[in-house]
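Example record for the data management plan.
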Amino acid sequence: MLVNSKESIYYSGLATPYEVAKTADNTSVCPAWQISQARYCLSKAITADPEDMTLRFDRASLYIELGDYQKAAESYDQILGLCPKNVEACKMAAKMYQKCGQVERSVSILEAFLKDHPTEADLSVVNLLAAIYMENNTHNRALQQIEHARSIYCLGEELPLYLTVKAGICQVHLGNMEMAEILFRDLQLENGEDNVDLITEVADSFMSLGHYESALKYYLMLEGGNAGHNNGFLHLKISHCFLSLKERARAISFFYEALRTLEDNIDARLTLASLLLEEGKEDEAILLLSPPKKLESTNDTNTVQSKPWWHNGKVKMQLSRIYHAKGMLQDFVDTIFSSVRESLFIETMNQKVRKDEIAATAMPNAASSRGSPTTCWEPMLKAARAKKSLQKKAALKEEKKAAALAAGLDWQSDDSDDEPKQQALRESPLPKLLKDEDHYRLIVDICGDCIIFKRYFLTLHIWKRHTYNTMNTLSVEKKEELRSLGAQIASNTTDPTHGYDCARYIVQQHPYSFAAWNCYYKVISRLENRFSKHSKFLHSMRCTHKDCVPPMIIFGHQLTSISQHQAAAREYLEAYKLLPDSPLINLCVGTALINLALGFRLQNKHQCLTQGFAFLYNNLRLSENSQEALYNIARAYQHVGLVSLAASYYEKVLAIHEKDYPIPKLPSEHSGLPENQKPGYCNLRKEAAYNLHLIYKKSGALDLARQVLKDHCTP
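Corresponding structural encoding:
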């Protein structure tokens, strides 16, 4: 038989007082239904026995565990209304209202309690009221409360030390330093280890107001005793005080002491690294920011912890900057590359999540709008498709459930919820990677250094991710720099398709730049012959810029590569009309005419051959008898069978030592990058010697052929 009592309500709700208390203390491991049941049982028990304060305290504690501070404050306030002399309820109600941001309500409760108990009030209430005043920067009112407590509750006696210290802190904030030192005198006479919290509170107050010397005096009181042993936070505060006093050496030593126990404190490590850099100790800063050598001793596989400090993005960023400043480019790339790649990937995923959220919020508005039929039918169709898809999924789920139950198996759905979960935004290792100038320069530096080390695939991955995320927000100058970088990557990768658009953009921006066209041709020469985008673009550029020579030359080169020498000669001659004094164009026309003369269908071969050599000699004149021009004439003579003339010109080539010339670069390409070329890459003596040895060998002069190879081709 059930009776109307708190015991019956406990047991009818399947919760004993012990279980309720246990639930209140361990809500983090209890299911939500048990917490709700405990709260329901407590409320019913309070209704059955309103005078039992223990139940009310239990319910208020449960609200605190759940993080519902407003209801906890109201519960303690109710207890205080029922038991006006309950000091604990008064203090807890004030603390909870303060957590809810209702400071005035918190103060009024404490002041009312003191007013209602003028002679027997608990000094802990005065202490709490003064602390609330001090947190809200009303130190004069806090001091008034402490002085009032001295005159009312401590007649002929000294105030407790904690109230005296609070009075001294108020004097410090009010600018009465002499009075504050008098009040702190008792604290200095006491044993520091017994008053660690009070000494720390005084020192923190001095430090917050910029009185670093006074703060140091109290911090050092703790540092010498057991309280300062392995106290990383204390050493950290001392180091900040020394740093503010410009005593860098002592600040550095205390930062090291702090990091012995607070090795995962990223801000302290970065501050110490900056100090070391300012002192010119780059190697020491690198050692500080580098992973420890013995990683086995730092990894704990039995506990679930966050990533170690050396995986932090800020640490890697600082370390990479040091490497880059010292010119250690390989270490720079190895340090920061993984974080940059992960950050760009996360930013890409986050952008997709944001787009999905915007689409999800815009869908109801679009469906409920009363616009024209053309604007409303698409959302309605999407909603209908989504509804059918959900119905199919639900039916399939029910079939799987029925089959599992029929087989006597436990049913566990693959989907935890009927509705798909919204993917949450992830935190990036480098949160500001796409937002400020420093991180933009970091991306450019990484890509440039990866190109130096020929890590083209990784460079292309970084470049594509960054371009995808930022192309709509960057300035025109930065966009052009990124496209130039993409063209440079494309000209070196095995698959330049990804960077073709960048090379095309560079040419569009600089249609008359031979350097831009050189890069474009380098990309095109590595693609398939029938690349549709290239053909259309080349035709467009020729129609738009009729006086632009590079498209004609590139088209002529492509015709030459498929042995259409007559069409190639026509293109070269069109370019010759515009630039008759160009050595390159004269060379191209000459080689095209000589190749055409060697064909079977041409009738006036000798005339065509003579014209071809005329252009080659014109190239020799314009090049001022350069080694390259002489070699081209010799190679042409050898090609048509005039080996005697070819031998004479090869000998002229061997007599010249050609210096190296810089390889053409993109308009915005960094000029300081190394060429990665061996010395003598412009010298044609080895090629000329080899061809000359072939002529001697064919004519039977084997000794002469061997001597030429020995003199010019032996390393």
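Summary line stored alongside the record: The first helix runs from residue 6 to 12.
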